[in-house]
Amino acid sequence: MTTAHQLDAGNDGIREYTCDEGEALLDARARQLLGISGPEFRRRWAAGEYDGQEERDEVWQVAFLLGGAFKRT
Amino acid sequence: MNQGELRAAARRRAAQVHRVLSLVTDEWVRWQATSDPGGAWLELPGERRIGTSGRPIALSVQETLSPSSGALVVFAARYTIVDFETRREIFAYHRHPPRLDRMHLHVGSGAGQLIAALHRAHLPAGDVSLPDIIEVLVEDFGVRPLRADWQAVLRRP
User: Fold this and answer.
1) d(CA B18, nearest CA chain A) in Å
2) B33 contacts A67? CB cut-off 8 A
3) Domain boundaries, chain A
């Protein structure tokens, strides 16, 4: 049984993704939920094609994986 | 902020969030640092059941983070509370700039099962953080914290 002490031990339980792994997850989720690749979603997001659709669950589930690219400048 | 600093900041943020979530769940937090234009995401994968004295509920956490003054700040987020049995959303806090660049509350159809608790609850408003969400779950929704010193852990900087 897991104890509270073990749970709070440093970074135990936190999984770190490399950038490549993160990109792979973005691509997989975009394909699963929207039927497009991760790079294509990134392009459409940057172009504002999802403006006003942030509340759509399938859009959010992919968009939040963009990290800093979520915030278009 | 360079890539090394970004990853260090992301690791600190993940450790803080994990510490908060560890008060009510033993599930993993996962995060990723990205390189261009800089930022990271962090989530508690899926919806995780948390123990309550009443109806079982589940919590999911997703945050998108951006570098600011050497730290990572949350600029988009979803904190979602669902009825574990019916899978219906009870309430959720969202922030998704630029259209809605402030935390806002959605009350879902699952709230009907917990309407009494919602009437009693002091739902946080304004600049809502994940510790705020955890606190209201423990104090108003009967979620059992895994540690006796949960309040001190919650407010630790």
Assistant:
1) 7
2) yes
3) 22-70
